[in-house]
Amino acid sequence: MDSSGKFTRHTKEEINSLVELWRQSGKNKTEFCRERKINYSSFIGWTTLKKTHHKKSASFIPIELNDSQKLFAEIHFKNGSRVCFYQPIGADYLQSLFR
């Protein structure tokens, strides 16, 4: 919203820049949006779109498992997808998957 109280549209470049500024700021989304007078719901959508874009460009490499390896952890998503880990992984790695 601008100083006159009207909503403003942002270009893709502006959105990408604002999301990057937020990531570097160390502030939570609410605080960042309040300071910059950005609609919180819109900002949530922007950060979600950015995550979705990265997921589409991600690639996977095949791994070979032998029968002796046992399941270490399994993550189930609401959309029915799941990810299985057959070796120990740290919490930091898991958190990095959802940034």
Structure description:
The protein is mainly alpha-helical and 99 residues long. It has one domain. The chain is 47% helix and 8% strand. It has a two-stranded antiparallel ribbon with strand order 1-2. The longest helix is centred in the middle third of the chain and has 18 residues, at 40-57. 2% of the residues are buried.
Describe the secondary structure blueprint for this structure.
Blueprint lengths: L11 H14 L3 H8 L3 H18 L15 E4 L5 E4 L5 H7 L2
Antiparallel strand pairs: 1-2
* Secondary structure tally, helices: 4
Q: Kindly give the count of domains.
A: 1
Radius of gyration: 19 Å
Coarse shape: elongated
Order of helices and strands: HHHEEH
Measured between the Cα atoms of the first and last residue, the distance is 27 Å
Helix content: 40-55%
Task: Quote the average pLDDT.
Answer: 79
Secondary structural class: mainly alpha
Total strands: the figure is: 2
Strand order within the widest beta sheet? 1-2
The residue ranges in which pLDDT falls below 50 over 5 or more consecutive positions are: none
Largest sheet descriptor: 2 strands, antiparallel
Beta fraction:
5-15%
